Structures
1.
Amino acid sequence: MTFDPSYALEFDFGRGQVRMVNAGERVVIPSDALLALCHGTNDDVVRDFGRRLGTEAGRRMNDRLGEAWQASLETVVEHLGGELALMGFGSLGLERWGHALVLSFRHSPLAPSGDFLLGAVLEGAMQRSFGRDVVAAKLMRDGDQVRFLIAGYDGANKVFGWLSEGVSWGDVLSRLAGADRGAS
Amino acid sequence: MSQEIALLEKLLARVQRNAARPRAVLPAQSAAAASPAAPPPFAPPIEATSVAPAGLDDDLAPLDSSPVFESSPPEAAPPYGAGFDSSPEASAPAPLDHSVEDLLLADPFPSSSIPPAHPSLTDMLDEDERNLLVSATSPPPIASEDISAVMSRSDLAQEAPEELLEEDIIEMSPTSEAEATVPSRHDLADLNFDDEDQDSDLPGEPPASSPRHKVARAAEHLEIEEDREVPLKTPPPESGRQAAVALPPGVHAPLAPDIEDLLEADISPIGGVSARLPTAEQLGQTIELEEARGPHLELESALAAPPGRSPIDGPHEEFEVALPQREFGGGYQADLMPPPEARQDLEAHRQRMNAEARAPEDAPAPESLAQDPSQLPDEPTSGFASVSAPSNVTTDSYSESVSTVTVDAPQNAEFAPELLLRPELNPSPVAKYIRIDPLRPHTFLELLDASLSLGSN
């Protein structure tokens, strides 16, 4: 089943409302205003705000897919990416580095300062769609592309530690895979 | 004998007469004449060196033409030899200043009427007296002119000579201008008495003006003239320019040889030998060869040709020797005696040949490679036994994979090698390649769980 965005948004000019199919009203605001709001608050507020957005996207994906836990990689990327695209967060991508799951955004209107918000959106979506509490650790940003490693809390802590030491994101993934292989 | 007695008496009378005569001072002219070779007291001033470069202007020329270096006063740096000439008596001629020509022309065997060539003691005493008279006055400087003159010593005393002998006439002939212009200081104002004091301070050395010193100097000059050698004196440690020591009158340095004469001497053969023949230097050392030992061989002319030979094959000349024929090839004359140096070597060679001839009798039988080594006779040659020739071999295998070979060592072996063989191994895989299938998650949830598990342990 492919993602069909037709008539996903409904603009009611008489009432002055924007509605999304199978969802409530939406407010179209400038992205820089949203960033300014995020900068004015602390990280917990931004994380909650972002997770709330992601939960909405995950719920709508589940409504489309029915049983999301049986969905393939391509299907999740297509539908979850479609929902996030309708919200205006950019194009979602998926990279698999061994056992590591890396999700990326391209062409996001948010500046690099909004990467924290994007990570929170992904965490909310994963939690809502698959029932897993995940941590979206930002690995790198190259131009208009930003990569997030979807990991648990232990793995995320190691990744943050290595990144703070200056280890490149490729070596971080290698070390993470090596540490997991040595433990097993 | 009577003549000698008369001569001695005459000399004695002259000595007594001179002793009774009061000593007088010679006039300055005579003293100056007595020392014709004395140079002016001061050397001519050294000309100022002009260092003006050629490219300078004429305005600057007078400034640059001023002398840069002043001539040093004579007192500052006395020339070498001034110490000898500083004494006034040095300006007077030496008592034995005979010219070399006079000495060479002197009769080696003088007659009894002529006094000996060497001055007697009385003459030297007279000379000392005259020198003392001369030293009392300072000789005036004379111009550097020709000073060659012949004068008699009696002129020094301003009296008529009683007897003018041949040895009393000396010829003052300076050999070179350098000898005539030897700087000496005769000015009384420039006399340095410190040097005299220093000289007099030397213990055991008489002053320069003493007669004993003069006698010693005269004897030294006499020895020098007899040996015809110029004494070598080590100059004092002085720096700067030093003047050459004036040689005694009549003695001059050897002249430089003529280069043309030397070249002609090198080209022309020595002793009339032809130039085509090698010289002695080219031949080097001559080594005389020993005469040949052995029988004396002579070539004889063939009286008659052998009967089997044609007259054409015979020698054409009288001393031509025909080559040996085939039947004589490789032969030699048996009665030839070896040289004595080779007898020892020949004897050693014969002994060695005899030992080799007896060796096969004493040596064991040759070993055949085709023969079984176990059948070879046991001969203990050393403490080690041959491993390749076991007398008994049994196989005790305790396992299927390990084979043990037991070898009975020979009885005569003290140390038998122990062989350890590596057990045989059945063919089995020695390497294991572990192929890991990459994770191909079928669902997104599988990948999500795998990613969440990273770093959890």
2.
Amino acid sequence: MADTTVKTSEKSVLWDWLTTVDHKKLAVLYLLAGALFFVKAGIMALFMRIQLMFPENTFVTGQTFNELITMHGTIMLFLAATPLIFAFMNFVVPLQIGARDVAFPFVNALGFWIFFFGGLLLSLSWFFGGGPDAGWTNYVPLSSREYGHLGIDFYVLGLQVSGIGTLVSGINFIVTIVNMRAPGMTMMRLPLFCWTTLVTSILIVFAFTPLAAGLALIMLDRVFGGQFFITELGGNVVLWQHIFWIFGHPEVYILVLPAFGIISEVIPAFSRKRLFGYTAMVFATLVIAFLGFMVWVHHMFTVGVGPIANSVFAIATMAIAVPTGIKIFNWLFTMWGGKITFNTAMLCASSFVPTFVLGGVTGVMLAMAPVDHLYHDTYFVVAHFHYIIIGGIILGLFAGLFYWYPKMFGHHLNEKLGMLTFWLMYIGFHMTFFIQHILGLIGMPRRVYTYLEGQGMATMNMVSTIGTFIMGAAVIVLVINHVYSAYKSEKVTVRNPWGARTLEWSTQTPVPEYNFAQTPQVRSLDPVFYEKVHGDGNMKPAEPLDDIHMPNGSIYPFTIALGLFIMGFGIIMFNMDNPIIPPLAVTIIGGVVVFGSMFLHSIKEDHGYNIPVERVKEELDKEVG
Amino acid sequence: MADSVDISKGLPPNPEKATLEGQNKFLGFWVFLGGETIMFATFFGTYLGLRGGTADGPTSADVFSLPLVFIMTMILLTSSLTSVLAMFAMKKNNFKALMGWMWVTVLLGAAFLGLEIFEFYEYSVHYGLGYTTSAFASSFYTLVGLHGAHVLFGLGWITTLLVRYRKSGITLTNAPKFYVASLYWHFIDVVWVFIFTVVYLMGVGV
Amino acid sequence: MGENLSQPFTDSAMSKDEKIQMEQEKRVQITAFAFMIFITILAFIAVASEAIPYGFAVPFILLLAMVQFFLQMFYFMHLKDKDHGWPNAMMVSGIFLSAPTVISLTILLGEVKF
């Protein structure tokens, strides 16, 4: 009950990390898992570029190439970008709104472990006859029971499981931001990163549920003999394309909106100015989110749903350029006349703006339905979305990493190495992808494993591959930077090393497990800056120093996720030629683990524990001393 | 979590939202229902898109029987009312009535589920409408079966709550749990309203 | 804090006015239920009777379903009450996004061009 004070340090380290419900530790777990998957998918990209370096190269076979493109896309979007964004959301959002933790700490841990085990399930495919090979869009009939091999089942179940994790995390963030804000933190004083997190989470709730439905349909088709996508028996293959893109287009915004949020935090901090047009930024975010749901057919212009439908969706797509343009100009005006510091975080954030514009402009080009028949499935599309994803999301993530790293780990990343990472990344990225626009326009189709000599593609492909290696070098330098800084960097002891403006910089570094000794009273947008100008520089407390109530850790998130993993694997086993254990038994065991853990968790009332006020005071004194 | 209401005078009038934890559960569950809406919409869309794809198998007009659906509808609608009455009892701190109405809800839900299993059995055995017969059959069984699975999960959930808290009285911890379970039960009912309209009533006339 | 979370109460803190209000609310709910049963029967009759053409019956029963949907949401699930701003926003968004989903999955399957 409430009076049992368990110090987390008394438990073993491994057990602590397996059972933690602390949002800051989960953020680190997300960061680690996301980085691992990022490196894995990056190596796949290198393999693909090596294969395309020369005409008629034989580095990998066509089948392996198909598996590589599928896994590269799937892992990058679902298992690398999403968790890396979740890492920042988890760490920053509760601190920025002045909360002690998220609304459902248990669900937060659950979301991480389910995502992680889903990713493992997908990755297991390499050991069972090869990865999925139908592209990250997994179109039927390529993925139907007739043409798709076992890898497709891993794709379906792996994403189904990891999607559940993402969904529950999304719900958690919405409730956190709506219900857990500190006194005085009204919706229109919410930092922009929190706004984009809120909107992204809403998108997750509405986009991952159709995905779950669609994946269930493919699973039922492949494993249990459903006829959804079998045209001879009344099925329809376009159905899957609709469902996939109803999810798939919002997914783009799910990833890019938090990046927008990070940029909107970093640029004001290093321009020494408040964000230009805060209200316009908030509403632009909402409009983008809304329009993001109304445009999915632009991925299907060449399918033949008809001219009126194509026109409607083309116009809706072009309309998205308007709120995005508002954002671009707001960032420019924030920097305009500011006292700008160009460190690594700011370099990433400011160069994000022109790169993202490039990706946006090609997006409007692709939105024109008649011309899209020429662009469709060429390298022009590949170049377009990599400009959005690397030039937008990855640069945003790098900016966030360098910006929040001192708060997360108590020391800075090395600036010199950081600069090197940035320039290598930036040059390599443009070298790889700018030229792919032209490759696409002269007719190189995407997802094809080789090309012939004398088609005028050899040189450009070579340039593109060299660019990829430069990006690879950038990532290696970043990894070295982490190790180097961990040993050589000075400890950060001040609360606000950047002189930034938002609430996460008002608490101790490193952040104590209860975040704030006293919940702060928020009096303005950019509260830390406001107190510096109008107060004594410290946040006013909204409550007296008192015992702090914290939730207990739990192993059930881990076991529930493990159960889902077993269950998913059991369902895949139905399609295996020679399953040694009966698939039904495995599925049932998984189900028992899942529902048993949920049952045990629900019948035990756990009200958490209290941190005594003495310890809180002690830690505050230690900082001053 | 901090208590936001005075509890010295007895059970607060809205016990489900008296604590921050309760408010979080309440909002989180509504968010989840918002997501469920569009998931069911996807399955409804799938059914509507594929219901013509009968592939020489039985059509909807061949198999659906309105009397059975009518009885199922009435049972489920009534169970929605009983869970409303349970919530009124909870707000008045009438623990016995809460338990009673909730048990009635569970029984009605079980009756509904029994009829649905009987219905599926009839279709597949007597009419030859198996899951793999046609795209229409697959989408019908998936949509209605998913609803049935929701009913089953709801039954398990509410029964667990009823057994776990059989003697505890109404507390600030279990009130949000009962409230959220009743919201879930209403949502199942709402989905059924569209199923009997879109699937059954629109299916018999074609 | 944690202690009184698991404690039952001997009586209710509800004031007399609140009790009266609740009784009224209960009556409204039961009326709503009766009305729902009525329109359900109406929908079944509309389809079952030979007199009403199918072309009229379908929009009619869809309308009835919408009415019943709102009754369930606003009365049984209390969406009309105060403090339901966010739940309302989530449900409205859900319904708003469901409409294009259902429509496109129904008609935009490439069989008939639009």
